[in-house]
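Design request, tokens follow.
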């Protein structure tokens, strides 16, 4: 899945030259056309991000006026995501307050992918990923609880959209083993207004002869001596900053030979229930061993960032010490 997303981003850099030439401002898109255009992105992303395709589509429809809002037309922002320290292009728009800063994208598909990163990388949304991925109602209410929108009817509006347009069928399709297998073997195509038959080919994975695998539903390669994020960027179809973020390391990090190097974001839960600390174990090495994000490992064990465990200590990789709600909503 990461290869699909990375491939699309690379192709978008080329396609932007003629895809962002005003087509969206010139042509309104109907709701059925919008669903048909972006459903494939939501379905393919669901397995990678853990966000129900029905929820992603309902939010996009609601937040963007199914692609016809000012933010969608002028900034390709289909989820109403504000800047929040965004280093990229920005767009000024009056929403809750005058002249607020919103993220601007070269292409709408980037907005769909950034929406997933936005939810996955903010602690206040962490509890959503403990919900049943097929329970769109729980997700709708959870998004409202976490403060995604100020409208008290937000959950009701999402749920009504999902039911009226049967968006839940995309969740079932995403979780269908046959669909998952097909997605790996076929190019991901998308349609945009005015360019109904244009395809975006996805670059094949370039793993070479490296040993690869999957752990805790995360793809990884096995490190060789001297591997760095910059070296891996040259060899693999992935950016150095992604390696850094996905593996909780800094830009000058050198990986140990035989270590797992994740090519997708680590999970909020580990690949096991507990870990008994051995001599030489660190929080970072345990995080890497079980595919759990370092900040979540600290949070689940009520430890301050920077602390290291003692040999014999038992660390939780799932669940929380103390009140679950206390830690789900605590900021790192």
């Amino acid at each position: 899945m990461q290869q699909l997303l990375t491939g699309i981003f690379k192709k978008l850099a080329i396609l932007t030259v003629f895809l962002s030439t005003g087509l969206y401002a010139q042509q309104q898109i109907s709701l059925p056309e919008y669903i048909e255009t972006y459903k494939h992105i939501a379905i393919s992303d669901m397995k990678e991000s853990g966000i129900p395709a029905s929820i992603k589509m309902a939010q996009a429809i609601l937040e963007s006026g199914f692609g016809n809002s000012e933010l969608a037309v002028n900034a390709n922002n289909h989820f109403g995501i504000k800047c929040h320290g965004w280093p990229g292009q920005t767009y000024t728009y009056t929403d809750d307050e005058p002249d607020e800063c919103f993220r601007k994208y070269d292409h709408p598909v980037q907005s769909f992918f950034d929406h997933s990163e936005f939810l996955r990388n903010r602690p206040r949304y962490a509890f959503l990923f403990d919900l049943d991925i097929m329970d769109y109602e729980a997700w709708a209410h959870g998004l409202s609880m976490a403060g995604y929108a100020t409208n008290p009817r937000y959950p009701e509006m999402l749920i009504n959209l999902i039911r009226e347009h049967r968006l839940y069928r995309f969740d079932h399709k995403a979780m269908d083993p046959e669909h998952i297998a097909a997605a790996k073997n076929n190019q991901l195509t998308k349609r945009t207004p005015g360019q109904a038959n244009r395809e975006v080919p996805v670059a094949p994975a370039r793993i070479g002869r490296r040993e690869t695998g999957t752990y805790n539903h995360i793809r990884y390669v096995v490190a060789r001596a001297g591997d760095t994020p910059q070296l891996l960027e040259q060899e693999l179809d992935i950016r150095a900053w992604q390696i850094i973020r996905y593996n909780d390391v800094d830009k000058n990090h050198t990986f140990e030979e035989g270590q797992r190097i994740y090519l997708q974001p680590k999970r909020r839960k580990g690949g096991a229930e507990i870990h008994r600390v051995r001599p030489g174990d660190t929080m970072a090495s345990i995080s890497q061993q079980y595919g759990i994000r370092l900040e979540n490992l600290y949070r689940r064990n009520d430890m301050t960032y920077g602390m290291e465990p003692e040999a014999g200590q038992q660390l939780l990789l799932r669940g929380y010490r103390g009140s679950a709600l206390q830690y789900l909503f605590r900021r790192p």
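Comment from the thread starter after seeing the answer: thanks! Strands lie at 90-93, 100-103, 212-215, 218-222, 260-262, 274-276, 314-316.
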